[in-house]
Amino acid sequence: MATATLSPPSVTPPTYHRIVSPTLTIPSDPLKPIPVGLLACQRDPLLRELTTTAVSCRESPAAAPPSNGRENKKKKKAAPAPTAPLLEIILHDTIIFPEGGGQPSDVGILTSSDGELWDVIEAQRHGGHAVHYVRLKPEQKVEHALQIFAPGALVGVALGEEGYKRRLDHACMHTSQHLLSAVLENKLNLPTLAWSLTAWPTPSYVELPRGMSPEEIASAQEECNRLVFEGRSVHVEVEELHDDNKQYDTPSVGIPDDYTGGVKRTVVIDGVDRNPCCGTHAPTIHNLQLFILPQIETLARSSTSSARIYFLAGPRLIAHLTSSHTLLASTAAIMSCGAPQVPERVQQIVDERRKATKRVEDLEAELAASVAERLLSSVAHKAEGENEGGSLVLHEHRTDDSVNALAFLSAITQAFANKIGEREKSGEKAPRFLLVLSSSPSAQTSASTTVVLIFGSDDKKAKEVGDELKGKLNVKGGGKGTRWSGKFTGVWKDGREGAVVASIIDSVRM
């Protein structure tokens, strides 16, 4: 049995790319492009560079490569349009894969005959041709590019270090998806409805008609890795495309309607799967240890439902393990425990935090009741000797670093209202009152927020004072009925903002 390793083979086997149509040949005319399906990147996925010729070059009418349409499902904030010119270059052959089959585009570098380097930011299939989108650097000119990439000019094509890492990642994830989909179909009768090769380093997913149990996930993963350790080979069969062979007896969506390359390409995992695909696949699965994340994402639509399972393989799996271990080790160090004890310690801290939060809430409720009693006693002192229930117009400012200072002020007003209700039940006449409560953090800056809460027995008076605060202190807020709340931004000082509030309430007559 072959030993599995995460190191890819250095050379693609000569049996990888197989032309099975006796009349199909790779075009040799350097002024004509090889169609997508027969490109060098598809014949040899491990090839890093080659020399070819330019077929055409033009300045792109768009500021960015055209969208593939996937962004339409989720609205995103539009990025600023690039200002540097964009070229569209077609070559006789290329190792830069044009986006297709669910696989994103490669990136790479073109070298012109004068030794200048040109950055390929994306490649796309137009009809049957691969179009390279080259973003010009500030010192590069369109006129020079049109001359240096004239038809027949020699061009070097390379993936570069980052481009080759991207290629290996895409090849590992794409081939792993074929393997996983085949195992799910053959072992569990679960066809793949869709899939996504997500951006590095996040897990990719396959979408299925239903979710999977933990036992099914474990079984599928075990079967995939059994085949991986057997070292099954992968090859590609290419034939001429005719109307009678466009259809596939597989879950694949088949060949795109706008494809005009004339080539039918089938990716074969020995003894496991045959599926149409234009992607760049690893020549063997022996380096593709696969991990299925145990979480299931359920999707509910108007008439159907489905589920996504996420998976990792190859370099992306190593990155995930490295990142997870780093996070776990860091958390264990913070918790002063070993990695196996982290869940228990985290649960302990969560429980302690919940208890502490409950204790703070209880103490704040007790303090709010005490403050309300003190404020209400001010009414009683003022009303001594009077026949009426008394009145109170008061501003009280607090310094509070609570995450929700407004909630504490509301608790004070609620306790105040409850105590008035208790006095009314005992036969006492309810006092007239207007309270202006404010709260600032202990350390203030120009961006600090002071919350203001107005509570009164007369809703018109509460609104009048709120409007005054808006006009004189630029407090942003509003209210309904007997309550009005707002926020003041900046440094609140008793001798300045507090004095303004005092002058406002001095004019209030209850």
TrEMBL record:
| Keywords from the named record | Metal-binding, Zinc
Please give the SUPFAM superfamilies that the UniProt record associates with this protein. Answer: ThrRS/AlaRS common domain (SSF55186), Translation proteins (SSF50447)
The GO terms describing molecular function are: metal ion binding; nucleotide binding; Ser-tRNA(Ala) deacylase activity
Say which domain of life the source belongs to. Eukaryota
Matching entries from InterPro entries are given as: Alanyl-tRNA_Editing_Enzymes, Thr/Ala-tRNA-synth_IIc_edit, Transl_B-barrel_sf
Under PANTHER family, the record lists: ALANYL-TRNA EDITING PROTEIN (PTHR43462), ALANYL-TRNA EDITING PROTEIN AARSD1 (PTHR43462:SF1)
| Protein name as annotated | Uncharacterized protein
Organism this protein belongs to: Dichomitus squalens
Phylogenetic lineage: Eukaryota, Fungi, Dikarya, Basidiomycota, Agaricomycotina
